[in-house]
Amino acid sequence: MRKKLIAANWKMYKMPDAARDFVSAFLPLVKDHSRDEIVLCPPYVCLPAVIEAVRGSQLGVGGQNIFWEKEGAYTGEISAPMLRAVGCSHVIIGHSEWRQYFGETDDTVNRKLKAALAAGLQPIVCVGEVLEEREAGLTQQVLERQCNLAFSDLSGLEAAPLIVAYEPVWAIGTGKTATPEMAADAHQVIRAQAAKAFGDETARNLRILYGGSVKPENAKALMSQTEIDGALVGGASLDPKSFAAIVLY
Ligand code: PEP
């Protein structure tokens, strides 16, 4: 059985005080919850506040991006060992907003994935098709390409901590959600690519999250699919009650 993981992607929202307030309100709501793993991914500047606030709880904390070099003259960038050093356990890589606005490619996703694994972070690699690709019947092809390139040059052992998030871009922040069946189909394509790259055992254990307008109202239907191993939640993770309702679906 794969343990589900529910991760919050706060994107570029919240100041450190608001992040601390979120954790104070959220922790009591999930204090009896042990079924799934919970990870908060705040903006970099909130990491120390959130890491301090979750200390002693079951919550993990992740970054929203990394650069692939360990250190160097890369103004404005943050490396995987830096996230580890402040206490992060996870990192989001290849989010569609990075692909759309900041020139992320399948190749940079692969470099970042290797850097995250080398530093001992659990990477959450995002893949997913845009609307035109879905409408043109290209979803499977796009997912195969994204996974194939992202997963290259890694052994099954190295890739064991990997987590993938299937995020159809047309469902992110739009209120549109993939049906549980659409998500399950996409997850099977991703798992098949993982089997090709890493072997059957790593693929069987790979957790594949769904992301795209997950809300308290649709969390149960999505999370009840055996192929869906959790959720990456944007907008609905900003409010402690709403995120707790998703976690407790
Ligand atoms: C995301 O940012 O990864 C995401 C899924 O956002 P939302 O839940 O707002 O669609």
Count the E strands.
8
Q: How many H/I helices?
A: 11
Q: Tell me the name of the CATH class.
A: Alpha Beta
CA radius of gyration: 17 Å
Q: Would you identify the regions where 5 or more consecutive residues have pLDDT less than 50? A: none
CATH homologous superfamily (4th level) name: Aldolase class I
Distance between the termini: 18 Å
- Any idea what the shape is? globular
Overall helicity: 40-55%
Q: In which order are the strands of the major sheet placed?
A: 1-2-3-4-5-6-7-8
**Strand residue content:** 5-15%
Ligands (ions, cofactors included): phosphoenolpyruvate
Level-2 CATH architecture: Alpha-Beta Barrel
What is the third-level CATH name, the topology? TIM Barrel
Task: Write structural notes for this entry.
- The chain is of the alpha/beta class and 249 residues long.
- The chain has a single domain, classed as TIM Barrel.
- It has eleven helices and eight strands.
- Strands 1-2-3-4-5-6-7-8 form an eight-stranded parallel barrel, surrounded by six helices.
- Strand 3, helix 3 and strand 4 form a beta-alpha-beta unit.
- Helix 1 packs across helix 11 and helix 7 runs parallel beside helix 8.
- The longest helix is centred in the C-terminal third of the chain and has 19 residues.
- The protein is globular, with a radius of gyration of 17 Å.
- Bound molecules: phosphoenolpyruvate (PEP).
